[in-house]
Amino acid sequence: MMANNGQTRMERRQHRKNNIKQKNSVWKKILKLLILAVLLIGIGVGALFSYYIASAPDLDATLLSDPASTEILDINEEVFATLGAEKRTKIDNNDIPEVLRNAIIATEDARFYDHIGIDFRRIGAAVIANFRDGFGSQGASTITQQVVKGSFLSNDKNLKRKVQEQWLALKLDRNYSKEEILEMYVNKIYYGAGAYGVATAAEVYFGKEDLDNLTLAEAAILAGLPQRPTAYDPFVDPELTDERKNTVLDLMVHHNKISQDQAEEAKNISVSSLIVKKKTDFVRYEGFIQQVRKEVMEKTGADIYKDSLKVYTTLDPDAQERVEFLLSNREDNPIDYSSDEEMQVGVTVLDTQTGAIRAIGGGRNRENDGWNYAIDGNGRQPGSTMKPIVAYGPAIEHLQWSTYHQLNDDKPYPIGGTSKVIENWNQSYQGWMTARYALKKSLNVPAVKTLEEVGYSKAKKFAEGLGISFADDQITIGDAIGGTATGVTPLQMAGAYAAFGNEGMYHEPYSVLRIEYPDNRTEELQSEPVVAMSDYTAYMITDMLKSVVSSSGTGARANVNGLPLVGKTGTTNVEGKDGSPDSWFTGYTTNYTVSVWTGYDQDQKIINNTKTALDIFRETIQDISTDEETNDFVQPDSVVEVSVEKGSNPAKRPSEYTPNSEIITELFVKGTEPDQVSEKFDQLEPVQNLEAEYNEDNEEIVVEWEHEEEDIQFDVSAGTNGSLNHLTTTDKRIVEISNVEKGETYTIEVIAINENQESEPVSTTIEIQEEEERELPAVEQLHQTFDPVNRSALVSWSYSENGPIEFNVEIEEAGSTVDQLTTNKTSVNLTQLQPNTTYTIHVTPTLKNEDIQGPSSTIQLSTEGLENSEGDNTDEGDQEEQQNDPQQDGEQQNDDDDETEDTEENNPVEQQIEDTVE
Description:
The chain is α+β, with helices and mostly antiparallel strands. 34% of the residues lie in helices and 20% in strands. It has 25 helices and 34 strands. The chain has a 5-stranded mixed beta sheet with strand order 2-1-3-11-12, with helices on one face. Strand 4 (344-351) and strand 5 (357-361) form a beta hairpin. Helix 3 packs parallel to helix 9 (216-224), helix 9 crosses helix 10 and helix 15 (387-399) packs across helix 17. The N and C termini lie far apart (189 Å). Residues 1-6, 133-139 and 868-918 have low confidence and may be disordered.
């Protein structure tokens, strides 16, 4: 057993030895492969580097000595600016004072006099940083390399450019002295504020033409500027410049160029105390050039002020000239700034179809390279110009709202979690309304309700697709009305609105078409279109915005007759203050989009004239559209135009009975249009068997009709001579009309009605006859019997008519009425008749209480001889006395006259008339 066990151990040892040999063999193979791979990589890299070096440009002495300049061309490919060609003062190496030389070398290239054009120590440190933080995170450029890059190469951070840069730096260091290279550097570098070269910068910032007069602090400022000339510009940010100055002083101490005490003394000198007042230097098209520089830097890393480039831009010189004119103080400027003399303005003009920037107005009364209100910073609150972007656009896109969609503008909108509310600008609330009307009148409550309904995430994504970024990456209810910390620039707003005018295609606004580099390489920079929304959303928002510039819209002032354009107003407010610190108008045609902001540097300062933005838009769009065909917006197939009955909710089509005044035309996404027909104005069946009769006894018209439906009411009207007056509304089918006039023709109209409907009117007429005038016959058998003894007479007659008949008896004497009476008898007895008198008696039948008479009958009665038959008591002597005494006769006549008067007043005939019973 032991022998067997020993044999087993030996076998195991041998097996282990064999395994070790196999493992060593594998590692040898791996090592050989690694060595081979390194050799191959080295050969590959060497070949690649050889290619890069072979394709590097030659050292051109003219480019080294001449200032770096950039040509900027407009859409006509004509140069409108050459940057760096004029603002430069060249100096010799001997003109560089020691303090400036030490500051530059300590800051940019401490081993400048020791390396061969490239610094391997700095390259090693940069390689480690790039592996740690990513390629391009740290550079190792020497002054020599910076001269090479600024003269021959682009600013790209790629391997090819770095290899060529180092190769050319080696060649430059071999062919030129360190003093010549430093001279090239200080003459080529851009120092900000439009200054090229250190001599120009010293004059611009400190007013010093002799560099020997520079102080240590001034030299430190100049040495620190080339790294970030715009950011460290002491005119723009003296505090940041001061920090950079102190960094340069620390580097000078570190490299033993100055002492710590000298550094501390220079640090105590403020930048503001050193710089001179900045000269206002108008640069043609500068607002546009600032955008070009920003765009080139962001997309390529190149700097139009530091690199020799040829930049083809989108600038339309006519549009740019117009914008700069409208922002000027020229007397012929149609824009009136008198109420806001210090007002600032930002303007952007885009090509609606491509997003190409045609013009930029950076501001009014600006300093050279000053703040650009069209493009710089985070912008300002946009106010109601955000409503199509954050509210109505997303609602149409995601909820497929129509332009008729009903919104309830009933009261201020409470902001959740607070005691605040969102109110309409006019403090008025009108109830249910269309989305079109709400946007037309720029009402806040419907807008925030729209955002609430569509949802914050969808609205945020929609707006971001149009180039809008939200503060803290958060959207709130106030963003629907542009009243939050989110700001926009006219450039962003123009880009967003252009997408509505371009069938939903968004182009990021761009000012540069392409760049040509010194090495003849060309790079295209124009943006590509992105689908931001459906074509139906773009068109329907556009159509709604047409209402804004209509005569009753908030943007009517911006409209141009005959030019198909749309747009939106926007103002902001400050809590506790009246008025607006910002006023916007953004609008577009199929050719151009223009966004205008007006306000002040101070966010809270109130502007006096909020209409200036509309005026600038109008004057701009009108001018750039002159002599250019502007097509109207074309309705896509995805949108249908539908007639809707006004006030229906949800939308309903009008019926055949809907009045024209109650029909409006609105837009719907195809397939969502209403198919239900409104019954609001549908007519009931009219009444039937309408009849009217006159009741003579009650002297009223009785009207009756029939109708097949129950629970119905009826409007009854009546009148004469074509005029109808409403009499009553009743649920009965009969009505009595009183106080009618005889001899008139009445028209009676009846309409059946219920809560929402009414029938066609049905009418009938009825003529009320006048009563025929009763003709009375004359009395018959009229005669008289005279009684001389009693001096009386009985007058009698007969009469056959029935009814309330009376007789009018009139007694005349010598043509004059001496008495009259009315009796219902057929005889009268006349007494106290005067002698020798002839009476005429008229008897006329009359209808009692009515003005109807029959013909008069007449009979005469004579009392002749009455005196002789009775005797005369007067003496003859008295008669003679009366005849012979004229005076007495006259007096007697007077007495007789008096007696006559008494007789007329107290007529004995009238007093003695007696009715005789028949």
